[in-house]
Amino acid sequence: MNQTHLVTGAAGFIGSHLVDRLLSLGYRVIGIDNLSLGQKKNLTQALAHPHFIFHEQDLNQLENCLRLIEKEKIDTLWHLAANSDIQAGVKNPDIDLHATFLTTYNALKLAKHLQIPHFAFSSTSAIYGELPGNIAENAGPLFPISSYGAMKLASEAVISVALESYLQKTWIFRFPNVVGPRATHGVIFDFIKKLKKTPTQLEVLGDGNQTKPYLYVTDLVNAMIFIHQNAQKDLNYFNIAPQGSETSVRHIAQTLLQHIHSTAAITFTGGSKGWTGDVANFRYDVTKLSELGWIAQLTSDQAIQRAIQDIWNENS
Questions:
Q1: How far apart are CA 194 and CA 289, in angstroms?
Q2: What is the DSSP string of 111-122?
Q3: Cα-based torsion angle of the residue sequence 89, 94, 98, 102 in order, rounded to the nearest 10 degrees
Q4: What is the greatest pairwise CA distance in the chain?
């Protein structure tokens, strides 16, 4: 029997793409998701696969999770379950405490109980807070400005503790802004919703000059798999992004309108940030990842262009 991998947040935007990729590599995959943000339709392809098992379950109901998979021998736990709506966490930090940190804490307890040796974790650029220049993995000190970033940073800390005690290897992936099909949030998704409501106007939060790296979801999943296969220290942590490539929110708005042949007027709410907790501008240093041997196929602008096509088609 091939290795069995467990994916939490399996029905989510990124989790479902990871499930499909792991299955394509010949692994047996178990998915867990409480479907609070994830959607079962994202797993349509996986559910038809003979080597996939799905459990609708909340990770924070640990005893229930254990009962479902206690007889499984799992090689790697890929922990992607989290609150992905940063603005919601800013309004109510309890969301990130429960959905982002405690899910990690309980996923680690699951790994300990089931003796899962390998733990792969979806972290974020939000852990860095507002740092100038190209941000490398050893940047600091780290002071996140959102509860989402804070709970992801706390999650990295408890993973480090678990590595000292019972895990054999860990991989921490620090995501940039990720775009592509099956998205349930994010700037493109939000813009399309706004245009459907008011076709003659597209409101952009902030001044539109917020500039960040955007990574297409297929590139992201390929990077995660590559790192998992090729980074073999006990603790492996990597920034993931297209090399030297960022995109402004203003450019995203203009590209969307061009794609759908819209003459809507773009308006700006003003200010340098889109919302409280938004890191308006950042750049990743991805030297460490490129030296390992991986480079994104799409630039940030190309990722945006392709994702606009995907998300528009899904929501038309």
A1: 36
A2: HHHHT--EEEEE
A3: 100
A4: 59
Amino acid at 260: I
Q: How many angstroms separate the CA atoms of 19 and 138, rounded?
A: 30
Angle at 106 between CA 102 and CA 111, to 5 degrees: 150
CB 164 within 8 A of CB 199: no
Report in angstroms the alpha-carbon separations of 122 from 2, 68, 240, 267. Answer: 24, 23, 11, 34
Q: Give the CA distances from residue 261 to residues 250, 254, 305, 315, in Å, rounded to whole numbers and listed in that order.
A: 16, 10, 14, 16
pTM above 0.90, yes or no: yes
**How far apart are alpha carbons 20 and 48 in whole angstroms?**
11
Q: Token digits for 39?
A: 């959607």
**268, 253 contact by CB (below 8 A):** no
Which ranges of 51-186 would DSSP assign to H, the alpha helix? 62-69, 86-91, 94-96, 102-114, 147-165
Q: What confidence tens digit (pLDDT) does each residue in 276-316 have?
A: 889 999 999 999 999 999 999 999 999 999 999 999 999 87
The answer for residues whose C-beta is within 8 angstroms of residue 184's C-beta and 6 or more apart is 12, 13, 37, 38, 39, 84
Closest CA to 100 of 45, 47, 53, 155: 155
Rounded CA-CA distance 51/66 in Å is 20
Under a CB-based contact definition with an 8 Å cutoff, are residues 206 and 274 in contact? yes
How do residues 4-20 score in pLDDT, each as one tens digit?
999 999 999 999 999 99
The structure tokens listed for 123 are 């972290």
Residues 56, 62, 64, 65, CA torsion sign = positive
